[in-house]
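Progress against Task 2.4 (sequence-to-structure conversion) is shown through the following example record, which the project officer requested during the mid-term review.
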Amino acid sequence: MYLLKQGLVKLAEDADDGQPVTIVLIKDGEMFGFLDCLNNHLEHTQYAVALTDSTLLSFPIEIILKHIENLPEIERALFYSLVQQVAEAKQLVYVHSKMTVPERISWYLKKLAKKDKGITTITIPLTHEEISYMVGCSRQKVTTYLSKWRKEGIIQYDRGFIQLIDIEKLP
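Structure tokens generated for the chain above:
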């Protein structure tokens, strides 16, 4: 875990095509290097690059973990909820910058789907418009791809549910 005492550092990760994606710029007084650990990732998913001369302070992650364990239950739950939301926001930066529209729609469907008795289903009542807001495209694009995938037998949908029939064929 690091505290940027002075400077400018970018956190980035490499896309499948090898191109880096800048996730966030870290400025004076901000901390980084702890999200992966707090989200139970064994390895770092991002890397840091100093964009200017920078001074860092390094702390063992155990210090923060010990402090978190001593928090009242409600504060600990709030903290972990915020960590999860930040991680999801960072993932959206990557998704929006590196995936095509059909890949984004597919990613979102897979993210929401739950498998029950061998059937992969989304039971959240989502409109095409709401999906379009999450993946950053028009409602018409969402309708076009969902209809195409339904005709191809990849998904099935109706009001209130989407079933992923052949998840391997989604982009």
